[in-house]
UniProtKB/TrEMBL annotation:
Lineage: Archaea, Methanobacteriati, Methanobacteriota, Stenosarchaea group, Halobacteria
Broad enzyme group: oxidoreductase
Organism: Haloferax mucosum ATCC BAA-1512
Family matches, as InterPro entries: G1P_dehydrogenase_arc (IPR023002), G1PDH (IPR032837), Glycerol_DH (IPR016205)
Function text: Catalyzes the NAD(P)H-dependent reduction of dihydroxyacetonephosphate (DHAP or glycerone phosphate) to glycerol 1-phosphate (G1P). The G1P thus generated is used as the glycerophosphate backbone of phospholipids in the cellular membranes of Archaea.
Protein name: Glycerol-1-phosphate dehydrogenase [NAD(P)+]
Residues the record lists as binding glycerol: 121, 168, 248, 264
Principal subcellular localization: cytoplasm
Cofactor annotation remark: Binds 1 zinc ion per subunit.
Gene Ontology BP annotations: glycerophospholipid metabolic process; phospholipid biosynthetic process
Pfam families (alphabetical): Fe-ADH_2
Gene: egsA
């Protein structure tokens, strides 16, 4: 008997373009949601766009959070129940979007994603990435019902946030290699469609490198399209595997050892140089990753991340412990091997 089944959840509306933030209420009206919204944001996005969103909704409440954590999720759930809200609007970078995504899952209500930075591919994904103690959970949640990505707003964000988004996409190269490896060695379920989409997204972004420049709104357009596409790959896979391999484990470990030092996307980009070296060594494909990052203005060294060499080596040698996800790191990289890889690639 044929017994396979799959359930792919995707956003219903994706609006992307100049000034579309002011169409948020229209995009929400199209979803036939009931009740009032709760705006879930963090301090800077709140300052940048909070009032523009509140002006479009009667009876809206707001909560501003400092970090992504299970406590923040609980706080949002509590406020949403207290105010009896019908749905959530997530405004900001990856952290408020992840918190709102998970809270909406707990509340069994929908949410709408309004990114203020093209810095990560969680804009559309059906995963929520939340740290807890020594580990980081990639929790299944529903993707947003709608995404409203205003390229005018995204283009005004500090340029480094956009280069972080580019690096999060470039890391798809190694994420897919890790996923294929895990499929071959550990029989981890693999989706060829999701793997191909993720890799093609990275290739198309790298192919558009000449148009990705500070001050060009088209850059925000190109990067956001790639972030949406990568998020869709995660939704097709039903896991973050297409966009998160060993380079992400390295970054999650840096978040633990040296919290707040660098942006998620920048960390995974440098992680990708290192893990590509482990994948293909002397063939030099790590140089392609490094050059693509460097062309887009993303960091390629520990120094540019603002992280010292010892911390990079500690993160690289312990990254395999952070989550039960088989990657090129296997059961761990020795300190000597980590130092050699980081030295040859020029990361340290
Ligand atoms: N769920 C998923 O599938 C994914 C989740 N993530 C998660 O997302 C997070 C990384 O996302 P980030 O956006 O880097 O984090 P973030 O939300 O902390 O934002 C980074 C910084 O940019 C600021 N910012 C945002 N928009 C701004 C604007 N327009 N102008 C000035 N400053 C602005 C924020 O206030 C913050 O200080 C990580 O926790 C990562 O694990 C990343 C990729 C995928
Ligand atoms: O950051 C991600 C993809 O870019 C996904 O995060 P996780 O590694 O937590 O699943
Ligand atoms: Zn990422």
């Amino acid at each position: 008997m044929f017994d396979k089944s799959t359930w792919i959840k995707l956003p219903r509306n994706v609006l992307q373009g100049h000034g579309v933030l002011d169409d948020l209420a229209d995009a929400v009206a199209e979803l036939y949601l009931s009740g009032n919204p709760l705006l879930v944001t963090s301090p800077t996005p709140e300052r940048i766009a909070g009032d523009r969103i509140r002006a479009q909704f009667d009876g809206i409440s707001s909560v501003s959070l400092d970090r992504a954590s299970f406590e923040s999720v609980e706080r949002v759930v509590e406020i949403a129940r207290e105010k009896d809200v019908g749905y959530l609007i997530a405004l900001g970078g990856g952290k408020p979007i992840d918190v709102a995504k998970m809270a909406s899952d707990h509340l069994d209500c929908g949410f709408v994603s309004v990114p203020t930075a093209a810095s990560h591919d969680g804009i559309v994904s059906g995963r929520s990435s939340i740290p807890e103690g020594d580990t980081r959970h990639s929790v299944a949640a529903d993707p947003p019902l709608a995404v409203v990505a205003d390229t005018e707003l995204l283009a005004e964000a500090p340029w480094e946030l956009t280069t972080a988004g580019c690096a999060d996409i470039i890391s798809n190269y190694t994420a897919v290699k890790d996923w294929e490896l895990a499929h071959r060695l550990k029989n981890v379920e693999y989706s060829e469609y999701a793997g191909a989409l993720s890799q093609m997204t990275a290739e198309m972004l790298v192919g558009s490198a000449d148009s990705i420049k500070p001050g060009l709104e088209e850059s925000a357009w190109i990067v956001t399209k790639a972030l949406v596409s990568s998020g869709v790959a995660m939704s097709i896979a039903g896991s973050s595997r297409p966009a998160s391999g060993a380079e992400h484990l390295f970054s999650h470990q840096l978040d633990r050892i040296a919290p707040g030092s660098a942006l998620h996307g920048h960390q995974v980009g440098v992680g990708s140089i290192l893990t590509e070296y482990f994948h293909s060594g002397a063939r030099g494909e790590w140089m392609d990753i490094r050059d693509a990052l460097s062309t887009m203005g993303a960091p390629t060294t520990a120094d540019e991340l603002g992280i010292d060499d010892e911390t990079v080596i500690e993160a690289l040698t312990t990254a395999h412990e952070i989550r039960d996800r088989y990657t090129i790191l296997g059961d761990g990289v020795s300190e000597d091997a980590a130092i050699e890889a980081a030295t040859i690639t020029g990361v340290i």
